[in-house]
Design brief:
There is one protein chain. With 160 residues, the protein is mainly beta. The chain has two helices and eleven strands.
């Protein structure tokens, strides 16, 4: 049931950081190995720092498809998005292609303006890894129509 969809949309001149990328793959593998357990967690935040790295956690949420969700990205964390129920579309763009708006350091929420370059559908069992320069609009209804989504977002501290 578990299928990978991994988004790493990097500028061509960016450097590879072995230690950072190893943390991301460790988190991805943790999600793969514990998918059924994570799926049963209650709504809200659950710490995963002992399992992945210091400061890692998962946020479990539910919502119905959205009409016009805002752009967002996160400077302090990498998102590993996992769909447990339903399906949703994502629009993705590299932040270099968008116009920055406000950034709230307390919530690590960076808002953007502009157009996306890629649209994809995630459904049950999919995983999507979004790095700090992967701006995303989440929760859009897929082609099949509006859905109710239950998902988890693993947050892994970003240390370039």
């Amino acid at each position: 049931l578990f299928k990978d969809k991994i988004m790493i949309l990097k500028p061509i001149n960016s450097e590879f950081n072995k230690n950072f990328h190893e943390r991301i793959w460790k988190a991805k593998n943790y999600v793969r190995e514990h998918y059924e357990e994570l799926k049963k967690l209650s709504l809200g935040r659950h710490n995963l720092d002992k399992e992945i790295c210091e400061g890692a956690f998962i946020n479990i949420m539910e919502y119905d498809s959205k009409e016009n969700p805002p752009w967002e990205s996160h400077l302090q964390f990498v998102d590993i998005q996992i769909i447990f129920e339903g399906a949703e579309d994502y629009i993705i763009a590299n932040t270099s292609e968008l116009t920055p708006k406000e950034y709230d350091i307390t919530t690590d929420y960076h808002n953007w303006e502009g157009e996306g370059t890629a649209r994809l559908t995630l459904s049950q069992g999919n995983i999507l890894i979004l790095l700090p320069y992967d701006a995303h609009r989440v929760g859009l209804a897929p082609k099949t129509g509006k859905t109710h989504v239950r998902k988890g977002i693993v947050k892994v501290p970003y240390k370039a």
